[in-house]
Amino acid sequence: MQNQTMSKGALWAGRIMSGAATLFLAFDSINHILRPASLVAATKASGMDPAILLPIGILLLVLLILFVIPRTAFMGALLITGYLGGAVAANIITGALPLFLGIGLPVVTAIFLWSGLYVASPRLRDLLKNKINS
User: Fold this and answer.
1) Assuming Cys at both sites, which of 12, 69, 96, 118 could form a disulfide with 46, CB separation 3.0 to 4.6 Å?
2) pLDDT at position 58, please?
3) Cβ distance 112 to 17 under 8 Å?
4) pTM of the predicted structure, to 2 decimals
5) Where are the alpha helices (DSSP H) in 69-98?
């Protein structure tokens, strides 16, 4: 496989996107773990049991840790993508957020995760390039 290098600008753009997604997800997981009254009230109002907040927060934090470790970043991104898909489904079913936010925010977060990983990982770029060309 051919090792591709990225420009400094592209590398920094990828780092910024990964960093933004990581910060957002870290905030979200900590918010779920701490369970502020506003989140508990919103969870109840959407028809979901607030007891689910702590396990969801812990799960997201574990997945995020996998993502920030370079050796497990691909697996973390893959699992977080699944988590975000569940968030989209929950947002649509409960109607807790406006549709553009309920779908858009998780999708943009996933795009940021994968874009940053793509820039940071020559192996991922090679894999995708070979899959597209075959």
Assistant:
1) 96
2) 98
3) yes
4) 0.87
5) 73-94
